[in-house]
Amino acid sequence: MTTSGAKSGSALGRAFRRLLVEESGQDIVEYGLLTLIVLAVGFLVFVSLRTKMGISYVSWGTAIMNYWEPSPPSTP
Which helix (H) or strand (E) holds 63? Predict the structure, then answer.
């Protein structure tokens, strides 16, 4: 029982050391983190602009409706 525990412990230690030392997947992790940062910033910008865009759209629509004047009815 102790020998299998020692083997699994040493295998875990080797795997942990390999994770810290090897750089084979480092570029993928960096691109993943960069993508997450860009998505987070984009989401925050969109959330902050969403309300302002809605207010502008409604005010433009109201302004257009206020400028509209119906034409006088035509007489036959």
Answer: helix 26-67
